[in-house]
């Protein structure tokens, strides 16, 4: 693999913005510097004049893209990740919608082959079936269940090295015990698709749950006397809060409020389904039919949102242009924050030792190029 020097750009990561260069060798960043420092020689050189240079985006909640879903087998999973790469995603967690425990176990096992073929696929997010029927969103009510001991045992048996997070509604019978068991196995737990109140959410966070699944969606909203899940999440400083910045799921002012309330703890996610990076039309999500029109995905025949067609570069533009978020904070929410939320050991920063996966952005924050390794 040839060494590469990316020079004359503006480096942007969670630590800020600065002019400079990045030297990549052996698939990793080996050094960075500012224009006053002598850049090392390299096998090839990339002129980033007038461009932003960021770490590769890390999407910890997405179901698919380019007409393919991660949950539909190895070839489909690889195709979905490949489709998202053109928009800057270099590492992703495959989110699986609710299905029976038998099928979920089968899907989790199957994900291993895709992970072996593409190291950018970090693992699986089990989004259900341990969720509240009243907050199911685009999940099939018929397969939802409580996290009883046998079901949890079966998931834990196949989870090692594959499952990177699981969403649970804390109010379900057996949920608190399940949260503790998943955490003991090293699997981050997200609170989401839930009817729980502040106290139940706080108990889950006190036990160690450390994420919120797509803030403001599939949960009770914040009210003066009822702070709910988000009130508890803001108060718990170890909790990372996902948000879908597509201008459909959450109002830009609400996104700005989250960034202000929990700085450094917001993860921009796509929650994308197969229609992301593809045309409008008819799709499926799990066992449900989904219609996509004008980029809006809904369960067929309803107004229920069924994931999104969001791409990470568009989430970045929404955060910066519509929500007024500083560029380095928005980039951090697409890179370092989500990586840390799932315990990823490889940082998503422009620092020595980090993966040499980089995104070059134009001034308007559109993707110019994606450099892998």
Automatic annotation (TrEMBL):
Pfam families noted in UniProt: Amidohydro_1
Source taxon at top rank: Bacteria
Signal peptide region: none
Keyword Hydrolase listed: yes
Record bears the keyword Iron-sulfur: no
Coiled coil: none
InterPro entries, sorted: Amidohydro-rel, GlcNAc_6-P_deAcase, Metal-dep_hydrolase_composite, Metal_Hydrolase
Active-site residues, record numbering mapped to chain: 271
Binding residues for Zn(2+): 127, 193, 214
GO biological process terms held by the UniProt record: N-acetylglucosamine catabolic process
Domain Amidohydrolase-related: start-end pairs: 52-362
SUPFAM superfamilies linked to this entry: Composite domain of metallo-dependent hydrolases, Metallo-dependent hydrolases
Cofactor binding note: Binds 1 divalent metal cation per subunit.
Binding site for substrate: 138, 217-218, 225, 249, 305-307
Family label: Belongs to the metallo-dependent hydrolases superfamily. NagA family.
Protein name: N-acetylglucosamine 6-phosphate deacetylase
